What does this fold into?
Amino acid sequence: MNPQTSLTAIEDEVLVSRFQESQDREAFDELVRRHRNRVYSLALRMMKNEQEALEVVQDTFLQVFRKLPEFRGDSQFGSWVHRIAANYSLMRIRRQKVIDQVEEPIETTTANGTFDNDGRWETYPTGMWGRRADDRVLDGELRQKLIDAVDNLPEAYRAVFMLRDFDGLSYDEIAESLEATVPAIKSRLHRARLALRADLAEYFEGRNA
Amino acid sequence: MALVSGKPKCKECVDLLVDYLEGGLPAEDEKHLDEHFMACPPCLDFLDQYRASSSLSRRALETEMPEELADKLSDFLHKSCK
It folds into this structure.
């Protein structure tokens, strides 16, 4: 059997064990190969720059190499790697500027839907584009629109969106990484999703006009 | 957050979407929101759009590391990981 083929069929935890027991570099390289794309995707959206994203990925896997002997499997290997990547991204962003923001009341007005004083829709959010989203083909234009919408999010919201909706980290993990409370994290996530929805509503309704 | 009353207004339902979609509301509140969405087409449209925005964005963000950068990563790790 081709050694490379055999590695791709092996689960992460087995590869981790092989590395821990015998410093198996092929096992480590396979783990890097498997996880680098998602780590890169996260870093690229957090840093908005290919070179900085590469540096985050390098720092991440170097740290993984150093700490893997101590990894006890309390979380899944992939989750652990993404946490490291998230922390490196956040450290770099913090060095550039402050990303903490004063919490504001949740803003629930949207580009095409607003509420009256009684909490009822004053103007309705229209459009069927939300239906069967998982079946929708992402052409180049829509894909770029979605990437732009995420990139346009304020940093604090983008960080939470990436860590929760893209990376699937728990609220506790995100709160610890961002040094915030879980309610604050949920609030930022909600605002991020509202902003993305508003951007997409404008895009889809512009196409239907 | 929890519902103020058993008949939530549209704004209240939108405010609770994060917990609603993750099963994080008390059962009674979740039931009231379910009932509201069944009876309020604009809110149901909004719910679909809110969910879609998240899932579409997630799909769009998946990207492969360009080969040139993957090679640089590999070189870096071979030099640095000793």
About this structure: The first strand of chain A starts at residue 114 and ends at 115. The first helix of chain A runs from residue 3 to 8. Chain A touches chain B through 59 residues (CB under 8 Å).
